[in-house]
Amino acid sequence: MTETIRVFLLDDHEIVRRGIADLLNAETDIEVVGEASTAAQALGRVTATMPTVALLDVRLPDGSGIDVCRDIRSTHPEIRCLILTGYDDDEAIGAAVLAGAAGYVLKDVRGSRILEAIRMVAAGTSLIDPALSRRVVEKIAADTADDPRLGSLGLRESQILSLIADGLTNRQIGVELGLAEKTIKNYVSGLLAKLGLQRRTQAAILRLGQRPTGDA
C-alpha cells in the first residue's frame, strides 16, 4: 500500500491555498496536513505537522519562501521543499538551489504538473538539473566578483561564510566547526550585518563570486 504524501502549503493568498489544497486532497495518495499565510507562522506549523513535502510561495508579506525553505531544511532536513514562484528566472533558481530546495514550480502551470512535482520530490528526486543549477550559480557569482566587503570579516566569520556557500545549514556548520547551532546563528547574523545583507543566500552568492574558477 502506497504511503500517503503529507503536504504543507505556504501562500499568503487564501484563494490560491484553497485551490491547491482542493487539488491535492482530491488525490488518494496526497493529503494536505497544514497551511500558513506568513513566514512567521510557517516553521512552527511545519514542525507540528511534519509533512513529507512543503510547498512554499516565494513571495510573502513578511519574508520569502526561500528563507522558510532554509529554516525547514536546517531544522528538519528530511522534509523536501518545493518553491512556488510566478517567475522563471536565474535568480529564483539560484536562490532555490542555495536554500536546499528540491525544485521549484511556476504558479501558472497545470494542476497535473504540481501533482507530478510533489510526487517526484517526495520520492527523493530533485527537479533542479545539476548542470543548470551550476551554471546559474556561477553566473550570479561572476556578478559579485572582487567585492571588497569580505575584508571586514574575521577568520571565523569567513569560515562560516564559506560553509554557507557550500550549502551547509547552521546545524551542519556547527558540527563542522565544533560550535553550538545558536553560536553559528549569532555569527551568521553578525556577518550579514557587516556585509549589509539581509539573507544568507545573498551572502553565499557573494562568497561564490570570490572563489577561483574550479574551486569546489
Description:
With 216 residues, this protein is an alpha/beta fold. Helix content is 52%, strand content 15%. It is built from ten helices and seven strands. The radius of gyration is 18 Å and the shape is globular. The termini are far apart. The model is unreliable at 211-216 (pLDDT under 50). Residues 146-211 form the HTH luxR-type domain. This is Response regulator transcription factor. GO terms for molecular function: DNA binding.
> Helix coverage percent of residues?
40-55%
Between the first and last Cα atoms, what is the distance in angstroms? 42 Å
Give the neighbour order of strands across the main sheet.
2-1-3-6-7
Q: Mean pLDDT, nearest integer?
A: 82
Give the overall shape: globular
Order of helices and strands: EHEHEEEHEHEHHHHHH
Query: How would a crystallographer describe the biggest sheet?
Result: 5 strands, parallel
Number of strands: 7
Unreliable stretches = 211-216
- Total helices: the number is 10
How would you describe this structure in keywords?
216 residues, phosphoprotein, two-stranded antiparallel ribbon, 52% helix, disordered C terminus, DNA-binding, alpha/beta, DNA binding, single chain, five-stranded parallel β-sheet
Short description:
Helices cover 52% and strands 15% of the residues. It is α/β, with parallel strands linked by helices.
List the helices and strands and how they pair.
Elements: E1 5-10, H1 14-25, E2 30-36, H2 39-49, E3 53-57, E4 59-60, E5 63-64, H3 65-75, E6 80-85, H4 90-99, E7 103-106, H5 111-122, H6 130-142, H7 155-165, H8 170-177, H9 181-195, H10 200-208
Parallel strand pairs: 1-2, 1-3, 3-6, 6-7
Antiparallel strand pairs: 4-5
Helix pairs in contact: 2-3, 3-4, 4-6, 6-10, 7-9, 7-10, 8-9
Pfam families: GerE, Response_reg
Domain Response regulatory: 6-122
Domain HTH luxR-type: 146-211
